[in-house]
Amino acid sequence: MKTLIACALMSILFLPLMNAEDNPIIVVCTTTALETLAEAVGKENVDVISLVQPGVCPSHFDVRPSHITEISQASLVLYHGVEPWLEDLIKASQNETVEKVLVQGPWNTPDSAVEKIAVIRNALSQIDPEHANSYTKNAEAAVEEINIMADAMKKEAQELKVDTITVLCMDWQKSFVEWMGFDVAFSYAPPETLSIKDVNDLIATGRREGAVLVIDNLQSGTELGSEIAAQIDAYHVVLTNFPGAVPETDTVSKMLEYNARQLLDAVNRY
After folding, report:
1. How many other C-beta atoms are found inside a 10 Å radius of the C-beta of residue 214?
2. Eight-class DSSP state of 21
3. Residue 174 burial (C-beta neighbours within 10 Å; 0-12, 13-18, 19+)
4. Widest pairwise Cα distance in the chain
5. Which residues contact 268 (CB under 8 A, 6 or more apart)?
6. pTM
7. What's the CA gap between 175 and 170, in Å, rounded?
8. Of 112, 14, 3, 17, the residue nearest 63 (C-alpha)
9. 255: which of 69, 106, 231, 249 fits an S-S bond (Cβ 3.0–4.6 Å)?
10. Residues 47-56: pLDDT tens digits?
11. Helix (H, G, I), strand (E, B) or coil at 238
């Protein structure tokens, strides 16, 4: 960390002076989930930066000197609360005026995504009241986009009677799978935390309950789910928790639609 701080301080010294009135405010987000929501609410009034790549769990992340430089210029930092490295990063940036806003809780259901939009709207309006009306209008449009998508996906799920379909799923996708209406027989923790007994019990549960889908979370690893699916003769489905991790998921709304489509396609194959 000392080496990172030294490198970052050198780059900060040579940053060009900027007139805040002529430039959008800089918002640093720890993940692409927060990044895409902040972009939807802020639009042309913000310059949004994401620190963690979409295929990486934010709890396990290697900080680079460029991240310290980015935070040194930021007016706002949005984070989930699962980033143990963030406090040191902010301290290293020496940005004593940056606002830090916790956007806590899941974001991978339409309802929870709408809640996060409200938090981000309020945060942007507080630090940039001049554009508060714009942030409110943008937030309303983002919510409408999510709700339209959600209604379509929920309708299709109901037509397919997914509530009669039993599944196993990774903990971090359970809320979305239940929102879609599936019967979750059991959910499991990240693979590295499970013992051999835990895995055997999971396989036994899947067989006993007649689970036909095993639903994984891309960012937590997919080998375990694939093996369990093979053992119980079920379909293996992989969902993502972060926009941009797979093609055509560059916003939270599109990510949620992608996840819904993966599940619905698996049901149609079943």
Report:
1. 29
2. G
3. buried
4. 65
5. 160
6. 0.88
7. 10
8. 3
9. 249
10. 999 999 998 8
11. strand
